[in-house]
Amino acid sequence: FNHFCERLLSTNRIWQQEKEINKLRTDLDAANKMKSSGSFQSLCEKIVLQNKVWQLEKQVRDLERVSAESRKKYENAVSHAAKKMMEDMRKERMVEEYVSGLVSEVDACKSSMDAQAAMHERELQEF
C-alpha cells in the first residue's frame, strides 16, 4: 500500500510538472510572439523561461527515475519474499517427512518390543 501511495504521489508530481511545463511552453510561445521595443527584456524572459522548462524537465526525469527505482525495489522485495516462502515450505515439508519417518520407526520398534515381550512371557511360562 505504501508503494502504491508513493507511486501515486510520484505520478501526481509528474503530472503537475508536465502541466507546468506545458503552461511555461505556452508562455514561452507567447513571449516569442510578442516582439516589442523591449527585445532585450523579452530575450531575458525567454532565457529564464527556457531555464525553468529545463529545470522542470529534469525534475520530471528525476521523478520518473525514482519511480522506476521504487518499482524495482518493490519487485525485488516481492521476489525475495516468494523465494523465502518457498524455502520455508520446503524446510517444513522436509521436517514433516523426517518426523513421520521417526514416528514409523518408533512404531516399528514398539511393535518389535511388544513381540519380544510376548515371546519372553511365553518363554517364562514354558520355563
Question: If you had to describe this structure to a student in words, what would you say it looks like?
Answer:
The protein has 127 residues and is mostly helical. It has one domain. It has helices at 2-33, 39-126. It is rod-shaped and about 130 Å long. The N and C termini lie far apart (80 Å).
Given as residue ranges, the uncertain stretches (5+ residues, pLDDT < 50) are none
Multimeric state: single chain
Sketch the major β-sheet. none
What is the 3D form? Answer: rod-shaped
Structurally, the number of domains stands at: 1
Question: Nutshell version of this structure?
Answer:
The protein has 127 residues and is an all-alpha fold. Helix content is 94%, strand content 0%.
Tell me the layout of helices and strands.
Elements: H1 2-33, H2 39-126
Helix pairs in contact: 1-2
Coiled coil: 14-73
Keywords: Coiled coil
